[in-house]
Amino acid sequence: MATTVTTVNVNGLRAAAKKGFLPWLEETAADVVCLQEVRAEPDQLTVELRDPAGWHAFHAPAAAKGRAGVSLYTREEPTAVRVGFGSTEFAAAGRYLEVDLPGTGPGLTVGSLYLPSGEVGTERQTEKERFMKEFAAHLGALRDHAAETGTHALVCGDWNIAHQEADLKNWRGNRKSSGFLPEERAWLTEIFGPAGWTDVVRRLHPDVEGPYSWWSMRGKAFDNDTGWRIDYQVATDALAAAARTAVVERAASYDTRWSDHAPVTVTYDI
Known about the structure:
Oligomer: single chain
Site (Interaction with DNA substrate): 261
Low-confidence stretches: none
Number of strands: 12
Largest sheet: 6 strands, mixed
Keywords: Hydrolase, Magnesium, Manganese, Metal-binding
Number of domains: 1
Strand content: 25-35%
CATH architecture: 4-Layer Sandwich
CATH superfamily: Endonuclease/exonuclease/phosphatase
Radius of gyration: 17 Å
Strand order of the largest sheet: 3-4-2-1-12-11
Cofactor: Mg(2+); Mn(2+)
CATH topology: Deoxyribonuclease I, Chain A
Organism: Actinacidiphila alni
CATH class: Alpha Beta
Site (Important for catalytic activity): 231
Structural class: alpha+beta
């Protein structure tokens, strides 16, 4: 049975809704949609966003008003919903939401992640590093639980790190920038391999530049495809092996974008 999962940083869900998000949601064939940077409390959302028809909707806003926030829409009703990943520091940060879906075969755990963006030489970067360390421990526990129970696990979202040179157009100019630092890339290398997780899009598209999922709203970045691939679907090995197609739903033109990110959609045979 095919299960389709989409992840997208909406760059403010209320703003995205004014630019075309709702028609996209109505037309998508996805079974699960993971959203990041929602930037709203549930009571600030219209009912079409807070509880869209045909979906079970869950929201984890940040304590800091107007920042971060993640959501999950699922066609199937989850058996469990968890906000955060056991971290005291980041419990109310609006950066992680996780659901368990029963499915028709092995169960599936899906997480929506918005990893901090960081900024070199500032507290934002040290905060990002603390988050990465704690989240790596959660990934280890999630992987072990999936192995012990014979289930699948998938963490989707804006990881705010480009792993390889092929994952951003201007990699030479960003070697000292947050999001492409050697230590950040090494962290992902550990996750995508020894830690037992797979970058699904790269597995299906191994020898291409991109496909990019974020482009600056400034200048001609979108028109020139000068982007970054920072939105990932990261799966346990058995689930990654079941991935059949992976596409970035790039807008047809700059003026039809409803976010500075594009949806990343993967279909799995599970």
